[in-house]
Fold each of these.
Amino acid sequence: MASQEIRKVTEAYPMKGGDGPDSYAKNSTYQREAMESVKELVTKGIAEKLDIDLLLPSNSFHIADLGCSVGPNTFSSVENILEAVELKFQGQGLMNPQIPEFQVFFNDHTPNDFNLLFKSLPPNRQYYAVGVPGSFYGRLFPSASIHLFHSSFALQWLSEVPKVVEDKNCPAWNKGRIHYLSSTDEVVRAYKAQYAKNMESFLHARAQELVYGGLMVLIIPGYPQGTPLSHSVAYLTLQLIEACLIDMVKKGVISEEKLDSFNIPMYSMCPQELEAVVEQNGSFSIETLETLPRVLADDAVLNAKQFAAHGRAAFEGLIKQQFGKEITNELFDLYGKKLEEELSMFKPRKTTSFLVVLKRKEK
Ligand SMILES: C[S@@+](CC[C@H](N)C(=O)[O-])C[C@H]1O[C@@H](n2cnc3c(N)ncnc32)[C@H](O)[C@@H]1O
């Protein structure tokens, strides 16, 4: 095992666990809708690009879902992929028992609620399930052991906040703000550099773990180049959380120092950035890169509460780490109110995601 490759990433930001009303399990329908919308494209990608001859002979087919969280979304994605791979095998004239057995690896950070994940595994599943804790920015699997990687709505999370953004002595210090989207050029550059570094580590690790001819199916939130960032849903969410934290500093509920040292390690990429890192890495060809645009307007206005709950499920863990559990109810109540006001002004916002299919090149 290449132990030097297994990096320690101490920072983990799992979604809210459990299956209570605020949990990610109950508040991830937007992600689920996007995944359902790509089902056909994923099936087509697998039918056209998966190279069965290169993968066989092997009596088991290995799929890994990176950043799986707790379900139910991960189970639906795995189901869709498995169906598509089976169809591909059948299309090549293979029937049971020539079709390999499936093994599925569910990966997320160590503090993810793996107990809930395992308890809710579909009872009629047609695969052997394994949990793999650890950061996908380092090695997770033995060399050439995985046939297909999947990851949805996880690669926007950086491994850490860029150090310079938290350093009072650097021009990129992000005082009074919690993200780069409305910040200075220095802060934007620091986040961009962190994204490129993380993606390089991600691709480097996957290039070793994926068999030649194997595929990576990724759904990544981002924005098309040239779109003003202020039109995005990520901007809206982060701006409002920032505004709530500033209000709470003014009320003396949290200290200014805590706010100044808090930044969200999240990045919205544009496809050109992704293409650049894939090209630089050199181990993959881009087989598909499709924009999945969706305008978040009517449904979010009607359902500000649901939208606020999605924000809470994603960010509560991080907020708790920095400011303590005591402030979370007040913060997210305020966030819900601000969100309702903002959405009632009816400015359509874009949630854009990309479907990317990468193929491991042969030597
Ligand atoms: C928004 S959830 C997406 C979950 C699921 N894939 C879906 O589409 O609903 C993002 C997940 O990625 C995980 N994650 C973020 N960074 C990660 C990393 N470096 N390694 C492993 N998991 C990571 C988080 O812990 C979280 O569970």
Amino acid sequence: MPVENLLGEVGKGHHIAFNILNVGRYKLGAGTIGGSKYAFRNGIRYAKERIAFSKPITAFGLVQEKIADSGAGIFAAKSLVYRVVGAIDASLAELDKSAPNLTQETQKRIEKFAVECSIIKVWCSETLDRLVDQMLQLHGGYGYVEEYSAERSYRDARINKIFEGTNEINRLIITGWMMKRAMQGQLVLLPAIQRVMDEVMAGPTPREERTGELADQHALLASAKKLSLFCAGAASQKYGAAVSIPRQSRGLYCVSRSKRLVRGR
Ligand SMILES: Cc1cc2nc3c(=O)[nH]c(=O)nc-3n(C[C@H](O)[C@H](O)[C@H](O)COP(=O)(O)OP(=O)(O)OC[C@H]3O[C@@H](n4cnc5c(N)ncnc54)[C@H](O)[C@@H]3O)c2cc1C
């Protein structure tokens, strides 16, 4: 390989390769939304045309449920993708485009979104996965027949849970990197876990009261966050340092005998 073809610095090629994966995961997620919308439109068109028991099948509650779930899945996937690309754009816009280290700075800034890119990859590919299954189901027996697009959508969707790192590996990245960043103080995760663990140990607390149009949704989200933090705390109490997956961060996280979360070596 001629030396003038070198990209970046010698010995640091993996940074470029991993960042390509980050962007690839983000793009995979965005791409699956196109597949989801295509399958969704075809599923609804078929359901409106198919008459059973003298009615279009869209009149049945269980069919409406599939359509509603699928629509909500697409909305959530799009919201995730737009939110993250907005944050990446805003971060890159701050860079000085004439700086000699522009490439390295761009790389560092994208790398900060590695967890979000993995979340998008997992969430969007699994949204597509559920959606094509629901839309195929709406087609009944025709869903299994190659002449209908539902069959192809179902088959084509499958690869998205495998390439750009399988969803199992991306789940490990989400946990590992989040914990690593918590250890490094880049995320205020440990104090939040500690607060929830303390709250649980102190006994039942009254439900948080909220007002306004989205009060119920806020309350549900707050409970979901607490549950996640509690699970993270319980997992770290049981598994100690092993909860932080990447090898380089092992040994950084442990729980003292008093069951408080502490920084380790
Ligand atoms: C159509 C297609 C196109 C592709 N394009 C590219 C490309 O352009 N560039 C490229 O670099 N690669 C590409 N790939 C490769 C793809 O990224 C890999 O197939 C994928 O990352 C999975 O790796 P593997 O096949 O070696 O599976 P394996 O690593 O053998 O995994 C097998 C199973 O074990 C599970 N597993 C493995 N380790 C763990 C663990 N620690 N914990 C839990 N479960 C685990 C996996 O999740 C999976 O379910 C492509 C693959 C396909 C099929």
Amino acid sequence: MKSVIVVGAGIWGSSLALRLAETGWAVTLVEQHTPGHVRQASAGETRLLRCAHGTEEWYARMAWRARDGWRRLEERAGEPLFHEAGMVWFAGTPDGWENASAQVLKNLDIPCEVLDPADGARFFPEFRGDDLSFLLWEPHAGVLRARRATQVTAALAVSAGVRLVRARAVPAPGGVRVGGDVLTADRVVWACGAWLPELFEVPMTVTKQDTLHFAVPAAWTTPGTPAWVDHGASAYGHGDVDGAGMKATSDAEGRPYEPEHGERVVDEASVANARAYLGRRFPSLVSAPVLFSQVCQYALTPDAEWIIAEVSPGVWLLGGDSGHGFKHAPALAGYVAGVLDGDHAPEARFGLRERVPSRGLRTSGST
Ligand SMILES: Cc1cc2nc3c(=O)[nH]c(=O)nc-3n(C[C@H](O)[C@H](O)[C@H](O)COP(=O)(O)OP(=O)(O)OC[C@H]3O[C@@H](n4cnc5c(N)ncnc54)[C@H](O)[C@@H]3O)c2cc1C
């Protein structure tokens, strides 16, 4: 039987462990805390699932496949993990990122609709879109209950025979060192999120990201309130899910951050920025109180392309999700399993080559 050690039980490591265990591998999953612990990127209360990725067809296709994966996962888990509320993209120019996304989605037969800014009234109790060229509507996008999905995935992995070891792992010849022991296997995958640069030389920076949810009036809390992204303003959010309030937050990169010991208190400036955006787009929400907040971290590569790379025979790095990796996890697990099985090589884009800074996969970066 082929054996593998996966280090890191975030959504990437847990999904991969589950997939490999179900396809005949003996899997050991090593996690320094517990699956779903609050320092993980995967432990955000919610993460968005969308297929629009500008011109990047590869990611659009993978997100669409992943949506089926989430549906299967929630059936197995017997609980809702994906809230398919749809997503509205606010396009500031007629021929920018959203237009490119619409073309790709149409080519791939992924449902989407180009709407007039005035149609914003269909989705939100109040909407100011006079600065916009159009809206792009993705009806099958939505919100993942991320932390819960991570815990469920890790639990399913254990049920499928994965051995979960709670320890901090460091690289060792032929395997990984945990405490005084060296564990060995045919393959080792380091899926360590923002901790990866402590262990390997990787093109990655880690930044502090504050997320905010606001207490909003009842009209905003219907399950039909969609997710939204303003690419040009680097702002995004969604309607109330499970009583946590309306999410409204920034995708702009925060300051450098250390994921293990960094203090997890949101900055006042983040609250002020989110309020300023709400005031422009949904004016009556400008003084809605903050109901819930979280501090998380981005593991960013310069071009926002992920890292899937073999650093020595049988030893793989899986990381650099760049703030857009959660939604893909079930499909990405299948892709990486194919790499480990030798079915296909990873795309060159994921290699440890020198990366040219690019924003094609992320929002514009302004606040
Ligand atoms: C604010 C924010 C918003 C985001 N929004 C979205 C979104 O809307 N849609 C989307 O698709 N994605 C989004 N993302 C990105 C998404 O959260 C990540 O892509 C995903 O969670 C990455 O998962 P991961 O498993 O790689 O990392 P993590 O979840 O961070 O897991 C890594 C794990 O490795 C463990 N580990 C590290 N080192 C060791 C070691 N040496 N030994 C043992 N264990 C170790 C850690 O303890 C941790 O549990 C967002 C991220 C943030 C921060």
Amino acid sequence: MVNEPGKTPDTMDKKGITRRKFILGTILVAIAGALGSLFSLLKVLAPSKKGSGYVSTISPGDVLVYATGSKIGMEIKASSMNAGDAELVYPKGKSSNPANLVQVIKLSEQDFKAPTNVQLTDKGFVAYSAICTHLGCTVSWVKNQNSPDASYTECFCHNSIFNPSRGDLVEGGPAPIPLAQIGVRVNNDDTLSFTSDFTGPIGPQV
Ligand code: FES
């Protein structure tokens, strides 16, 4: 090996190492930049799981019809429900959108407590989204025969429990937020209709 004039092998090694470090650093910065761009692109392309796909098309004035059972599609009569009863319903003519599935419940008016929006209730009727805010199962009604107002909503997929007289607050299980309330009223012809949009997000929120 021939030394360059005025430079020792030690000096040249240090310069060589510095150059390699510089090139390596440049490559790492370029890779990090490329990964950052790729990550940003994937974030845009990937659908958000949170509440994805659950967009209700319910409008004020839509009449409630049975979503299940032998009366499916028929208008619900307010007089057919007693305190402690609940039904799964759709807005008439809009059953093809699962985000429109609602649980309408009859309780005693005096049992409603905050955060229930009593302005959105009528004659003891209150309504909430029937799509569990955990992973999107349809909720069920657990009727207390001895004390109808102690009845509650449960999602049997992972046992989330909601309190219908308190704005469907979560009282157990993994559901992260209450089931959103929606306005309901009793019409002169004894049918029920919606009076508002949902008060909060519907569908899975995790
Ligand atoms: S989907 Fe309802 S508790 Fe999990």
